[in-house]
Amino acid sequence: MFTTMGSRRNGFQKESFILSVDVGTTSIRCHVYDKEARIRGSCTSKVEPLYPEVGHVEMDPDALWKGFITVVKGAVQDAGVQMCQMEALGISTQRATFTTWDRRTGVPFHNFISWQDQRAAELVKSWNRSCTIKVIHGVMKLAYFLTRHKRSLAASLIVFSTQHVTFRLVWMLAHYKQ
């Protein structure tokens, strides 16, 4: 059985839509799609990265939230429909951008730390040069030599970068002053 997007209220079929929001490095974009996947409305808001120090790339959480609300409302208005007609919401975000917050108040402890941020570069270098990583690489190369299983060779190529959120999170936890 094929069902169409829509809801019944008072016996009338009301058309429904899907919101799609992309929170990127330089902008936040929102589109309203109809059941044929046509864009019915759109809105974009600029994201202003912050550079508090050389190599640090941050974003203000309040500004991102306000931008999110602005583009959602703007796209719905541009589509000429109402918010109650939205059936679903899809969100795509930046890779490895993060913040931490007080779970009691919901207030962020710091700005979002962007995937572009380099503050954990020294920590990453120390891990990549560590004896542990060298042993893992050596053992996995030996395993590949003996078995010829490519998954062993792949494991021998592990290298960390500052784009891995864990290193920036460790840096933030070690350096954040409350």
From TrEMBL:
Alphabetical list of InterPro entries matching this protein: ATPase_NBD, FGGY_N
Keyword Methyltransferase: no
Keyword hit for Transferase: yes
Molecular function GO labels: kinase activity
Pfam families documented for this protein: FGGY_N (PF00370)
Keywords: Kinase, Transferase
Domain Carbohydrate kinase FGGY N-terminal: 18-134
Family: Belongs to the FGGY kinase family.
Name of this protein: Glycerol kinase 5
